[in-house]
Specification:
single chain; 133 residues
Length: 133
C-alpha cells in the first residue's frame, strides 16, 4: 500500500507542476503507482536471487487487487473534490485532498488485504517466497 501511495502522490504533484489535464495527471499517477507498488514488492525478491520474471509474477499476484482498489478509490476522491486536481502545488486544497483520498483508499483496501492474507494470498505469498529462499 505504501509503494503505490508514494508514486500516486508523485504523479499528482508532477501533473500539478506541469499543468497537465485532470486525465493526464490521473493517468500518470496511476501508472507510477502500479510501477512503484510492484517494484517495492519485487526488491526483496530480486535481492534474494529470484529471477525478474518470477518476481514480477509474484508482485503482480500479491499487489494487483489492493493497488487497484487503492487507485480507484483515491482517484475517485480526488476527482470528486471540485478543483482539487487542478490546484497548484502551493494550494492546501491539493494536499488536503491527496491526504483524504489516500486515507479513504487505505480504509477501502484494508479489508481486502486482510481477506487475501487470510487465504494465503497478497503479501503472504511474498513472505512464503522469502522463507523458501
Amino acid at each position: 500500500m505504501i509503494g503505490c501511495a508514494i508514486c500516486e502522490v508523485a504523479g499528482m504533484v508532477i501533473g500539478a507542476a506541469l499543468g497537465l489535464s485532470m486525465w493526464q495527471t490521473v493517468g500518470m499517477a496511476e501508472a507510477l503507482a502500479f510501477v512503484s507498488g510492484f517494484g517495492l514488492t519485487m526488491v526483496p525478491l530480486l535481492k534474494s536471487g529470484m529471477c525478474f520474471r518470477r518476481a514480477l509474477g509474484i508482485a503482480f499476484a500479491a499487489d494487483l487487487l489492493s493497488v487497484s482498489i487503492m487507485e480507484i478509490v483515491d482517484n475517485a476522491v480526488v476527482m470528486a473534490v471540485p478543483g482539487a486536481i487542478m490546484a497548484g502545488l502551493n494550494d492546501p486544497l491539493l494536499w488536503g485532498t491527496l491526504v483524504l483520498g489516500l486515507a479513504v483508499a487505505f480504509i477501502a483496501a484494508l479489508p481486502v488485504n486482510f481477506w487475501l492474507i487470510g487465504r494465503g494470498k497478497e503479501h503472504a505469498v511474498v513472505h512464503r517466497m522469502h522463507v523458501g529462499h
